[in-house]
Amino acid sequence: MNKKNFDVALVGMALFAMFFGAGNLIFPPYMGFLSGSVWSLALLGFLITGIGMPLMGIIAAARAGGTIEHLAGRVGPNFARVLSIVVILAIGPLLAIPRTAATTFEMGVRPNLPWLPPAVSSLIFFGITLFFALNRKKVVDKIGKFLTPFLLVTLVTIIVKGIVTPLGPLTPGVIDNAFSSGFREGYQTMDALASIVFAEIIIVALVYKGYKGVRDQVKLASLAGVIAATGLGLVYGGLMYLGATSRTLFAADVERTSLLIGIAEGILGGAGKVALGLAVSLACLTTSIGLTATVGDYFNGITKGKVKYKLICIATVVFSGVFATVGVTKIVQIAVPLLVLVYPVAIILILLTIAGRRAIPRSVYIGAICGALATSVFDALTAAGLPITALNTLLAKIPLAEAGFPWILPAALGGIVGVFFARREQTQDSAE
After folding, report:
1. Is the dihedral of CA 369, 373, 379, 381 positive or negative?
2. Tens of pLDDT along 77-114?
3. What CA–CA distance (Å, rounded) separates 198 from 360?
4. What is the per-residue pLDDT across 121-141, written as a single tens digit (0 to 9) for each?
5. Count of C-beta atoms within a 10 Å radius of residue 131
6. Three-class SS string for 18-34?
7. Is 399 helix (H, G, I), strand (E, B) or coil?
8. Considering the entire predicted model, what is its pTM?
9. Is the CB of residue 68 less than 8 Å from the CB of residue 298?
10. Residue 169: alpha-carbon gap to chain centroid
11. Which helix (H) or strand (E) holds 291?
């Protein structure tokens, strides 16, 4: 294997480990459980937003310059800064970090230490998180190198055995549109948002390895992304199938974490439940430490050191620790409005950047974003329990709205309007 192929494989495995967040594992089985015999349609939708968009996010961010603000800069510097703050908060204290602690409690602590209250579990979890985030101990990276393979081996064992000897037959699900449901469930991984952050890390790693040209960086980052996407697709697909074959074994209102634990126990017995719970808990801990450090670095950087890294980390774990006690299900419900609002914007930025960042006029970016937000804002309000009935009735008539994508046509129309303004400006400039 030559150096370039070796570097691609190495970066690809690192990227897989970064995306392979333990908290993400609770979504595919649950989607399979809901979709039942049409689980493959749900998987297709889930793979687009849970894997396809993160892969494209890596490529787009690499082309744009490596950061969120580079990617969103074509819309405007203020928009880019606001979006970057929203993304960092989403993958940080608002959603992702509290979810790691809640998942740890529900999958690792509660099944094995049922007497330990969630508040105490959260306190211990974030005490450890803060210690390592402040001290930047390399031991976390070393533990992570062993944790990811251990978690992967455990999951592969469960998946293979579950395919060879299914838990039950495939039966009809309870959702009307499996594809759009899977598409939106993929939002919950938050990997399309995280990919924009991870891109900068990948670019730095490639520069360190000697690849300083933008073309080489984009090409190698893309190939590494394909490796990571392939691994994630196999794991997510296997887990979704297991969820689909478990419909007859669990109550209709089963929680996501309980479902995954039940599947592991049903396939491998008590040892499987303990092994999966332990691996997921430790993986969530390393994720929490990494995300806390990322939040600290980001806000320390944009304030030019005026707000200290230590203070940001403390504030992050305190907020996350309190929020984590509401449980995974509640955190997922709270996440829906924000993700419904932000994801269409991220998708548009990624697609336009890949299509041709410099060749596409700025007005097209602005028009497409405004068009998407014109519907996703109200979609988010509805998800938050604050529907505006008259507008929702109107939006429901938009093509693709019934499938769950009311923002696509307005975004396209906004982009077309942007083309018109761009040509008008060119005509005026030529006349002058």
Report:
1. positive
2. 899 999 999 999 998 998 899 999 999 999 889 988 88
3. 25
4. 999 999 999 998 888 666 556
5. 12
6. HHCCHHHHHHHHHHHHH
7. coil
8. 0.86
9. no
10. 30
11. helix 270-302
